[in-house]
């Protein structure tokens, strides 16, 4: 079995159970797994120098809408709140075809890889003009990232009092049938899986109570995870109270949407009782700080969640509400926002990097990822700390304070995806050109 030895790294942040930080250390990859971590390791296989570098587990993205890469910085949506932002963009998204879905997913995943991401979820909740979930799954295979796509859905259109246009909603039985199809076709529950499928009705304001409940029952029957948006902003809370007579956390609990097989995006407006509910049930949260800032949604109570024991990971959210897909930038923003809200000692660079790696893996139900220890998957990011971003830093391992935002090398399942700062799996300039052509078509 082929081996790769990452040799003589200045620092290795293992994120193992003991949270060991090793200096002058090696990481041995054998096949798709980590075989050993320590000093003085040897191999007869390939070696990759770790001198001048910090080695971490690959970053984990727990929430994205990859198709949105084609609608960045759209006029009329740049300064809108969530509901107005959606109303501006829905008509544009209605023009998408499978080609737009595929190319935007490729570009978004490539961008994530360059920022150190090895495992990404995606929430695709609209399927115009013949688009299907596998458009994104095939894109992830080409890029080489570990992928957790979710079969999202919207079923309540404008004519029924919902937010999305009727052209973008689906019949609920057809939604459930397609959920079964994609799980049966693409979900791999095995350890080391490169693709696991989740079920993800878009939000409480775009699907019925019945679909939320039925999706939860189906997910438990199929042994897959559940995902949706929850408590994103004040409008979200007001809608829940007006339509359901309760707060979002109570609504989720009533419909079976709590538990360690569920994770919710945003949760900016969770109150104390909802945080306690999530902690007791081990319900996960995808924290998306840049998008929350961009849409003026607020600062999620991540410090309170972490202290209570809520599983928290990071998400870049869609690039129509973030405008970029950099997990390293997302992690820094998460750290800074908790300091703004709670003081400079509220969250360290090391704790935030843990949320971005091990924390995200746990939210996605992947204890085989997010750690550098023997037996775990060989998903590894190598950060060059000899450049200008780290120059003068007394602690190069504090990457989120002073460090590079793009990786030097990236391995997924032991395969090198980024080599010397360049994407090794696709022709990135050609992909950018094609992506730009599709964006121009949508603008016309």
UniProtKB/TrEMBL annotation:
Q: What is its EC number?
A: 3.5.4.32
Gene Ontology molecular-function annotations: 8-oxoguanine deaminase activity
Is Transmembrane helix a UniProt keyword of this protein? no
Q: Does the keyword Hydrolase apply?
A: yes
Q: Which Gene3D superfamilies match?
A: Metal-dependent hydrolases, Urease, subunit C, domain 1
Q: Where is the Amidohydrolase-related domain?
A: 54-416
Give the protein's recorded name: 8-oxoguanine deaminase
């Amino acid at each position: 079995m082929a081996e790769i030895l990452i040799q003589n790294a200045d620092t290795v942040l293992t994120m193992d159970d003991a949270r060991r930080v090793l200096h002058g250390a090696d990481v041995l990859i054998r096949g798709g797994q980590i075989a050993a971590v320590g000093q003085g390791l040897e191999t007869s296989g390939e070696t990759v120098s770790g001198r001048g570098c910090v080695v971490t587990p690959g970053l984990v993205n727990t929430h994205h809408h990859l198709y949105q890469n084609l609608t960045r910085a759209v006029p009329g949506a740049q300064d809108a709140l969530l509901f107005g932002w959606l109303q501006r963009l829905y008509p544009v998204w209605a023009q998408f075809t499978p080609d737009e879905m595929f190319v935007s997913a490729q570009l978004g995943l490539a961008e994530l890889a360059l920022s150190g991401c090895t495992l990404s979820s995606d929430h695709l909740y609209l399927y115009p003009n013949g688009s299907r979930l596998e458009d994104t799954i095939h894109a992830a295979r080409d890029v080489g990232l570990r992928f957790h796509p979710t079969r999202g859905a919207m079923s309540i259109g404008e004519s029924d009092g919902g937010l999305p246009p009727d052209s973008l909603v689906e019949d609920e039985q057809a939604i459930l049938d397609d959920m079964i199809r994609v799980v049966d076709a693409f979900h791999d529950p095995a350890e080391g899986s490169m693709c696991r499928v989740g079920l993800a009705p878009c939000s409480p304001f775009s699907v019925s109570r019945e679909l939320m409940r039925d999706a939860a029952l189906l997910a438990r029957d199929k042994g897959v995870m559940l995902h949706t948006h929850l408590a994103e902003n004040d409008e979200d809370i007001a809608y829940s109270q007006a339509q359901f007579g309760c707060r979002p956390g109570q609504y989720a609990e009533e419909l079976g949407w709590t538990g360690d097989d569920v994770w919710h995006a945003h949760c900016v407006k969770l109150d104390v009782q909802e945080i306690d509910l999530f902690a007791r049930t081990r319900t996960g949260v995808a924290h998306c700080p840049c998008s929350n800032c961009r849409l003026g949604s607020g600062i999620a109570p991540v410090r309170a969640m972490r202290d209570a024991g809520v599983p928290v990971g990071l998400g870049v959210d869609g690039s129509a509400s973030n405008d970029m897909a950099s997990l390293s930038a997302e992690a820094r923003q998460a750290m800074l926002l908790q300091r703004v809200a709670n003081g400079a000692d509220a969250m360290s660079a090391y704790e935030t990097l843990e949320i971005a790696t091990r924390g995200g893996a746990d939210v996605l139900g992947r204890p085989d990822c997010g750690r550098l220890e023997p037996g775990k998957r060989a998903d590894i990011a190598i950060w060059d700390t000899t450049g200008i971003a780290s120059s003068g830093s007394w602690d190069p391992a504090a990457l989120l304070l002073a460090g590079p935002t793009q990786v030097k090398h990236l391995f997924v399942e032991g395969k090198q995806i980024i080599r010397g700062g360049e994407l090794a799996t696709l022709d990135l300039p050609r992909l950018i050109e094609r992506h730009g052509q599709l964006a121009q078509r949508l603008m016309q």
